[in-house]
Structures are given as structure tokens and as C-alpha cells.
Write a structure and sequence with these properties.
Blueprint (H helix, E strand, L loop, with lengths): L3 E5 L6 H15 L2 E8 L14 H4 L10 H28 L4 E7 L2 H11 L4 E6 L4 H7 L2 H8 L3 E6 L10
Parallel strand pairs: 1-2, 1-4, 2-3, 4-5
Length: 169
């Protein structure tokens, strides 16, 4: 069955569910797990110097430039916080009896997930799927969709809660 599972985690609302399901599957198949978190400056809630500067988009707004030291410090703080979080997840998995490692990378999440899965080499990638559709998926992209179409191995997309925008009108 599966021997090496790459589990992409991203601190979303459904992240705990993805993690728990991954550990259950790893225990059932006696698989090794690699937890992967990708920091990406173009996705929420990450800090982007372009998108935090209104005058970069609307030059008529005059705001002082972001202090580059503060920006670098915020990124470093975020990186450390996420590494501590990954370490905590790995410890939980290890205590559950699953051989587990972790990695944090910077870049485009879909590409990084596929690259790490290939180089590790994983025989299953587990990703969460938020249930975005239509325009929101077009503008926000879909990491799970990218991984499904570009991965070298099997992909398990764990569905999050689907937001029904029609019911909200």
C-alpha cells in the first residue's frame, strides 16, 4: 500500500482534520509521514511588501514605505512560529506511533509540494481542499488542483467544508 506519505499542512481551519486523517491512515498502513508547510508571500495570511503598500497599487495614496527591517523581522517571526507548530505536529504523530519528519519551504505551494514529494520520494500526497469553486478558485487558485494535476504519485484530497454562496443570498 503506502509507505511514504507527504502531508501538506497550512494552518487553515481544516488543517487539524487533514493532520488527524493522515495520522490515522499512516498508522493503518504503517507508513512514514513527512509534514510539509510552505510559506508563500502571495497567500493569506502571509506578509507581502507589495500588497501591504497601497501606493504600489494606487500610486495616488501617499503612505510611508514599509520599514524593511520590520518586514524581515515579521517574516523571521512567522518562520519560527510555523517551525514550532510543525515540530509540535511531528511530536504528536511520533507519540501516536508514526515515524514522522517535517519540512518548511518558501515558494509556490503547489510546486513545492510536488517537488518535495518527488525528491523524498512519497508514494502518496495528502492535501486539504477548501471547497472553493468558480470565481474564488479562479482568483485565489487551487493548490490541491495543481497537485492533483502535477504530482508524480497518488494524491488524497481531504475535503473541507464547502461554502455555499448561493444560500447566503
Amino acid at each position: 500500500m503506502f509507505h511514504k506519505m507527504l502531508v501538506a499542512v497550512d494552518r487553515s481551519e481544516m488543517d487539524q482534520h487533514v493532520f488527524e486523517q493522515s495520522i490515522l491512515l499512516a498508522k493503518a498502513t504503517n507508513a512514514e509521514v513527512m509534514l510539509l508547510h510552505v510559506l508563500s508571500p502571495l497567500e493569506d495570511p502571509y506578509i507581502s511588501p507589495v500588497f501591504t503598500q497601497p501606493d504600489a497599487i494606487y500610486p495616488t495614496l501617499q503612505t510611508p514605505p514599509m520599514d524593511s527591517y520590520n518586514y524581515v523581522q515579521e517574516w523571521e517571526d512567522l518562520r519560527k512560529e510555523r517551525l514550532d507548530w510543525l515540530r509540535s505536529l511531528a511530536d504528536t504523530a511520533i507519540h501516536a506511533g508514526v515515524k514522522t519528519g517535517f519540512s518548511q519551504n518558501l515558494g509556490d505551494a503547489g510546486r513545492i509540494i510536488c517537488d518535495v514529494a518527488s525528491s523524498w520520494p512519497a508514494d502518496l500526497i495528502i492535501v486539504g481542499r477548501r471547497g472553493r469553486a468558480g470565481i474564488s478558485e479562479l482568483f485565489l487558485g487551487s493548490i490541491s488542483n495543481y497537485v492533483l494535476h502535477h504530482a508524480h504519485c497518488s494524491v488524497l484530497a481531504i475535503q473541507g467544508q464547502i461554502i455555499d454562496t448561493a444560500a447566503n443570498h
